């Protein structure tokens, strides 16, 4: 995960430019939130122990009595995390998540797929990363993608949300197929990456595990580390329930390196392709557009200072581009400082997603 950070977000779009005007008109017609208001996915959910196990901070991984939900705690002694017991060669990874509330500066909650444990230098990763904030300021989050160790080429998008993720559960899902990646919040697709031949191995294509973690990111998460985690408010609790996961599982990690290519995943791929979450309906596409018009405030595709030629999967929408500066940030998005160009990198794949630190923020 990782990527550029920003401390300031504007929840409300500037009222006075074209696309936002269109948006306002459409939102008057259709209600203010991006909810696609179709029924949610048809998922069968899993007991924690059926598919996941603690990753670190075991004492801070608290299963509910019925074993179907789990709380991840961060306190002075430790953060915590869990990992899927198997790796999957493409799949769908999903959970209903409630984030810690109150004062959450310096806290990072991540829900992501990775194989950094197995492929150190050429790992793949797909991320949801939630960044806490000082009291009264909303959570922000970002999505990202790495393929075959492309940590020099972050593909971050950053957003605000249309609800308070600490108040109620919302479903966060990552669909990863041989052809596309879709990030969902509830049944709203918020980002779609269509595989493009020019991406080559930068499209994630080796088996990955699902990870969920909470940890202290005080050094960078909120205003560039200005606001640290305050353990007066500990423990910080992220709750996960209605866990769902489908894909082509590898029975053993050894399979990953040796025989992943020989694995017969055709049934699983067909099942994934037929699932409701693999097709974006017209209504959902509209909800996605609305979400992106209103809540997307940084896109690497429009960050021409960083990528003079946008990475090949970028679909440049001229109307959308119009709203962003050459730093990839919204023109009228409030007082975001512009990100410093390239930044340090570090990989702590055992515990956390790949983080590209940004001193801005
Ligand atoms: C939901 O999925 C199950 C199989 O997992 C299937 O039997 C059922 O018909 C599906 N329900 C709907 C409404 O599609
Ligand atoms: C992935 O990266 C490794 C190391 O950089 C490289 O040797 C390999 O050719 C890449 N794989 C593909 C399929 O491009």
Automatic annotation (TrEMBL):
One of its GO terms (biological process) is cell wall organization. It comes from the Eukaryota. Keywords: Apoplast, Cell wall, Cell wall biogenesis/degradation, Disulfide bond, Glycosidase, Hydrolase, Secreted, Signal, Transferase. InterPro entries: Beta-glucanase-like, Beta-glucanase/XTH, ConA-like_dom_sf, XET_C, XTH. Catalyzes xyloglucan endohydrolysis (XEH) and/or endotransglycosylation (XET). Cleaves and religates xyloglucan polymers, an essential constituent of the primary cell wall, and thereby participates in cell wall construction of growing tissues. PANTHER family: XYLOGLUCAN ENDOTRANSGLUCOSYLASE/HYDROLASE PROTEIN 8-RELATED. This is Xyloglucan endotransglucosylase/hydrolase. It comes from Linum tenue. The lineage of its organism: Eukaryota, Viridiplantae, Streptophyta, Embryophyta, Tracheophyta.
């Amino acid at each position: 995960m990782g990527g550029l950070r920003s401390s300031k977000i504007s929840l409300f779009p500037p009222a006075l430019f074209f696309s936002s005007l269109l948006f306002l008109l459409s939102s008057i017609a259709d209600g203010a939130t991006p909810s696609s208001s179709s029924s949610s996915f048809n998922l069968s959910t899993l007991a924690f122990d059926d598919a996941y196990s603690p990753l670190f901070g075991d004492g801070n991984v608290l299963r509910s009595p019925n074993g179907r939900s789990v709380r991840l705690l961060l306190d002075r002694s430790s953060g915590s995390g869990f990992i899927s017991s198997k790796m999957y060669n493409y799949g769908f990874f999903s959970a209903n998540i409630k984030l810690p509330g109150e004062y959450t500066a310096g806290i990072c909650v991540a829900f992501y797929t990775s194989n950094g444990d197995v492929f150190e230098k050429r790992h793949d990763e797909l991320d949801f990363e939630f960044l806490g904030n000082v009291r009264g300021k909303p959570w922000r989050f970002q999505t990202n993608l790495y393929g075959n160790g492309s940590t020099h080429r972050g593909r971050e998008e950053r957003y605000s949300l249309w609800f308070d993720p600490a108040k109620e559960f919302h479903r966060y899902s990552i669909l990863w197929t041989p052809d596309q990646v879709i990030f969902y919040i509830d049944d709203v697709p918020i980002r779609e990456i269509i595989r493009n031949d020019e991406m080559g191995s930068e499209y994630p294509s080796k088996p990955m595990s699902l990870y969920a973690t909470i940890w202290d990111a005080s050094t960078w998460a909120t205003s560039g580390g200005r606001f640290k985690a305050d353990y007066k408010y500990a423990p910080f609790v992220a709750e996960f329930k209605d866990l769902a996961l489908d894909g082509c599982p590898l029975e053993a990690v050894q399979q990953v390196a040796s025989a992943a290519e020989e694995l017969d995943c055709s049934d699983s791929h067909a099942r994934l392709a037929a699932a409701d979450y693999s097709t974006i309906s017209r209504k959902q596409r509209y909800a996605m557009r609305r979400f992106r018009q209103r809540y997307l405030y940084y896109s690497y595709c429009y960050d021409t200072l960083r990528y003079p030629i946008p990475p090949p999967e970028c679909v440049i929408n001229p109307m959308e581009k119009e709203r962003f500066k050459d730093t990839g940030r919204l023109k009228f998005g409030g007082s975001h400082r512009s990100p410093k160009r390239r930044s340090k990198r570090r990989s702590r794949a055992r515990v956390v997603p790949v983080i590209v630190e940004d001193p801005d923020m």
